[in-house]
Design goal:
Elements: H1 2-21, H2 23-41, E1 48-56, H3 59-62, H4 68-77, H5 88-96, H6 99-109, H7 112-116, E2 118-122, E3 127-130, E4 135-136, E5 141-142, E6 148-149, E7 152-153, H8 155-165, E8 166-170, E9 177-183, H9 186-225, H10 229-250, E10 257-261, H11 274-302
Antiparallel strand pairs: 1-9, 1-10, 2-3, 4-5, 6-7, 8-9
Length: 303
């Protein structure tokens, strides 16, 4: 038993002796890898992050008065939606992730040049420069066939690149929505985040106004067709709710989502963390080089 313990002690001492013997080579190798990794990281452009936190607007629930349940039940029987905010947040999150929403969003806010052809961000002049081989900013024309089809950027390629840089998530505990955007330009990252919120609010707002207006026209036609006072009163109550929805939607730009924490153009880069890359590379190189020295020495000794 003692001989085995002594053998273990000898092996451990021998390992430390080997590492000490090759310490200069190990340190130089690790530092070299760290420096190489650091300079490689310089080839990657700085990325700036913007975040915006949202909650569901209380404007929908504000329209739900005391007789809301009775009136809304009758409205649903007539095929008319008054308000159902429970699933709207989930619907909005999924809609923002859809290809059809991205197509409309990209056209309305003209995000494709910054998304597909950005070259670098000049921090001193606060200006984003574009890759002339991909996009000619003077003529607003696309050149690279890899990202465009017949002079128009590929929608699916643009969609994939956009959601490589954009994350939309919902906290199941608080029901808050967080939108995170990354770009070489902090101005662009901030613009994307705020524009996404503006667009989704506009989509739901216009949808509610359009449905309310159609419902009012339909209900007025039904009132003209009946002489029953109770039916007329009920239909007038539904019309009143539709007017409330339409007026509420027209009165605000934050119909569905209310901004809790607005996004800003970041002053400091989010990535890459070059110091972390440098020290992590040194640490990993130290471990690997120590393992190599030990295994190589013992294999050589065994042979």
């Amino acid at each position: 038993m003692e001989s085995f313990e002594n053998q273990d002690q000898i092996d451990i001492r021998e390992i430390f002796s080997l590492l000490w013997k090759f310490k200069i080579q190990i340190i130089l190798f690790s530092l070299t890898i760290g420096v190489i990794a650091f300079f490689i990281s310089l080839a990657f452009p700085n990325q700036y992050k913007s975040e915006i936190v949202l909650s569901e607007s209380n404007l929908i629930n504000a329209n739900q008065g005391g007789n809301y349940n009775q009136v809304s039940s009758l409205a649903r029987l007539a095929g008319i939606e008054i308000s159902s905010s429970g699933s709207r947040v989930d619907m909005a999150v999924e809609m923002m992730k859809s290809l059809s929403f991205f197509e409309k969003f990209s056209k309305n806010y003209k995000i494709l040049p910054a998304l597909m052809a950005s070259d670098y961000w000049d921090e001193s002049t606060k200006q984003l420069f574009y890759n002339d081989n991909i996009f000619d900013i003077n003529s607003s024309s696309w050149k690279d066939s890899k990202v465009s089809r017949n002079g128009v950027p590929s929608l699916q390629i643009a969609y994939e690149r956009f959601f490589d840089r954009v994350e939309i998530s919902k906290d199941r505990t608080t029901n808050f929505i967080k939108i995170t955007t990354l770009h070489k330009s902090p101005e662009v990252a901030n613009y994307w985040a705020t524009s996404l919120v503006k667009e989704i609010n506009e989509v739901f707002k216009n949808e509610v106004i359009e449905k309310a207006e159609k419902s009012i026209i339909y209900l007025n036609e039904q009132i003209r067709k009946t002489n029953l006072i109770e039916v007329r009163n009920t239909l007038n109550g539904i019309i009143e709710e539709q007017f409330k929805l339409s007026m509420t939607a027209n009165a605000t730009d934050e119909y569905l989502f209310k901004t809790l924490s607005p996004s800003y153009a970041a002053e400091k880069k989010s990535s890459p963390d070059r110091l972390l890359i440098f020290f992590a590379s040194i640490f990993i190189s130290l471990i690997l080089s120590c393992m190599f020295v030990v295994f190589y020495s013992f294999n050589t000794k065994k042979n």
